[in-house]
Amino acid sequence: MDRLKRFLRHELYEPAVRMSATELGISLSAGGWGGLFPIPGATTIAVFFLLLLLRTRFTVTPVVSALSVAINLLLTPIQLMLIPLFMLPFSQCSPSSFLAQVHELPLLVLVVEFGQCLAGSVLVWTAAAPVAMAALFCCAAVGTRAMRWMNKGKFEAER
Question: In terms of C-beta density within 10 A (0-12 exposed, 13-18 middle, 19 or more buried), how is residue 51 classed?
């Protein structure tokens, strides 16, 4: 356990403290964007492709990537809780209607209906993700600048 703490402190925490506001904003927004993707198991791939896309505009360091993936994985419980919310606009996708149909419909029909519900939830997520990503980026940038301003002497002494 002590080895894990040292590793996380040396490889993730210390480099993250030295990140710029933009880098921290990219990490938080990319990790949050992918962490809320409504298909469990596909979030890490979503974050990977987003970071590849962001490389064309920003400098994406290994620390930014690692922090993005860590945030992505930490959001898994919230992701699982939000899946029904993403399916809410589609009336046939409510959990109660699914449970009622389990004994009535053949398995193939249930799988197809669930696939349609997941596709719909991805559409809802696609509409909400840019707004959430921009908000996370702005909050991270403002928060980082405020922390650096409050601890100005401390950060200059470390560098």
Answer: buried
d(CA 78, CA 103): 29
End-to-end alpha carbon distance in the chain: 29
The residue segments making up the domain with residue 108 are 2-158
State how far the alpha carbon of 7 is from the alpha carbons of 12, 28, 37, 68, in Å.
8, 21, 28, 17
- Euclidean distance between CA atoms 99 and 110, whole angstroms: 10
The number of beta carbons lying within 10 Å of the beta carbon of residue 118 is 16
pLDDT tops 70 at residue 155: no
Cα separation, 114 vs 134, whole angstroms: 30
- Length reported for the chain: 159
Question: Could you tell me the pTM of the whole model?
Answer: 0.71
* Rounded mean pLDDT, 51-67: 85
| Number of domains the chain is built from | 1
Q: Which residue has the tokens 């997520």?
A: 125
Q: How many CB atoms lie within 10 A of CB 1?
A: 5
